[in-house]
Amino acid sequence: MEAVLQAKGTDAKTRLQLTTRKGVIWFDQVSLMPTDTYKGHGFRNDIFEMVKDLKPGFLRFSGGYFVEGEWLRNAFRLKETIGPWEERSGHFGDVWHYWTDDGLGHFEILQVMLIQNGVLFDQQWGIQNPSI
Q: What percent of the chain has pLDDT over 90?
């Protein structure tokens, strides 16, 4: 089952509560990202515009323990960070003790770098020249 929930307002005291009379509700993956993203590439419009306006000379992808892990079994796997977010296996960040779904992987970093340089990398691995 897939559902899209849309807030009709803002209230800091609001909470989402799902209940059932029988059984348990399990969630596999939940995203709080808006559906309207920068040119459909998964980045919030406001944040991407702010970064673009900064005109950064370089972008650094997370490194160190996030990529290496304390143990090899928990290292960041390049091939597992490419493709649809819901199909990525994710990995355990054993140094900081949390699970990451790898929603921001190498593919997204490449997209940002190419967008910043005036070339947009689309989801089908084609190259377009958008008006940025």
A: 0
